Amino acid sequence: MFFSGRRKKKKDHDNIEDVVKKGTDEENLKGEISGNSESYEKKDDGIRKQMEQEMLTQDKPVTTGKTDAIRFVRNNCEAIAENERQIDEAKKEYEKVTSYLTDIQRIDMAREDEYREIKDICKSILTLTQERSKYKNRNLTISDAQMRKFEPFEDELVDEIKKMYNAQAYQDAIEGDIKNLKKEKDSLYSQRKEIIAKQNALKGMTKVLAVLIISLIVLLIVIYYATKTDMTLPYLGVVALAGVSAAMLVFESSKNRRDIILVERKINKAITLLNKVKIKYINNINVLDYNCNKFGVKNAKDFEEKWNEYCKMREYEKKFRENTEMLNANNENLVIMLKELGVKDADIWISRCEAIVDSREMVEIRHELNQRRQMLRERIENNEKLKEGIISQLDEMINAHPEIKGELLGIIKEYSNV
Question: Which of 124, 259, 275, 382 is the most buried (most CB within 10 A)?
Answer without folding.
Answer: 275
